[in-house]
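Database export, one record per block. Field names are fixed; values are copied verbatim from the stored entry.
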Amino acid sequence: MKAKRLIALFERVGDAPGAVERFRDLVLWLAIQGRFTNENARRGIRRERDCESSLDGELTEADLPEDWQLVPLRSLGVIRGGGTPSKSNPDYWSGDVPWVSPKDMKLDYLSDSRLHVSHLATLETPARILPPGCVLFVVRGMILAHSFPVALTRASVTINQDMKALELFDSRHGEFVLLALKGLRDRVLSRVQRSSHGTCRLDGDSYRKLKVPVPPLYEQQRIVARVGELMSLCDQLKSAQAERERQRNRLVAALFSEVLRDEL
C-alpha cells in the first residue's frame, strides 16, 4: 500500500477516538503481509485483498508474497520459560541480573527491569539467564484481556513464570519477529483463555503453533525501517490530536467562564 493511501485513510477517521492506535494496527497488519515493498518485490503476491477488510481476518499464505514463509513460532527458535526465585532467600535478590515481569513490558526493546536477581538465583532456580536478542512475550495475566506485550532483549535477562522467551535460531530475525507478533496481536488475543475468576492465559499450543510470516532477511530490514517511519508519523499525529484537544478544552473553559460571568 502506498503512503498516500494510508494518509487518506487516516484523514477520514483522524479525529475519531482511538484513530491513531487503529492506524498503528493497520500499519503493522499491512507490513506483515508484504504491502510495504515496491511493486516488483510484490509481484509474487498470490491474491490481492482490500486492506481494510483484511484487518480483522486471519493471515494465510494467500496473503503473502511467494518468497515469504508462514511458519509456526516454535520453528524459529527455542521457547523458554522463567520463574520467581524465593523471596525468603535474600541472596537471590541481591544481584544485578534483570528479572523481567509483565510490568516491565512497556517498551519494544529491553535491557533492564525494575527488579534484579543474583547469579546464584540463575543457577538454583528456574529464572535462568537468557541471551540478548530473545523475543519476550506475556502468556499469563490480566493484561492479556486487552494487550499482548512483546519485546526484544538488548541484554542478558531473566523472566518470571508469566512470560516466555523465544531464543531465535538466527538472531537476525529478531526485529521482524517482534514486529510480526505486534501485528498479530488481535489473533493472539482471540486465543486467550479466561478462567471463572478472570485469570487470562495462553496455553502452549496457542503460541507455539502461531503462524508467523517470515520474509527474506533483506526484505525484513526494509520493512522494519519503513514501519519505524510510519510509527513516527503516528506519534506526530497523536501529538497533533492532543494539541487540538487542549485547544478545545481551553475554548470550552473560556466560554464557560463567560457564561458564568453573565449570570452573576
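Remark 1: The two ends are 58 Å apart (CA to CA).
Remark 2: Residues 83 and 161 are 4 Å apart (CA to CA).
End of record.
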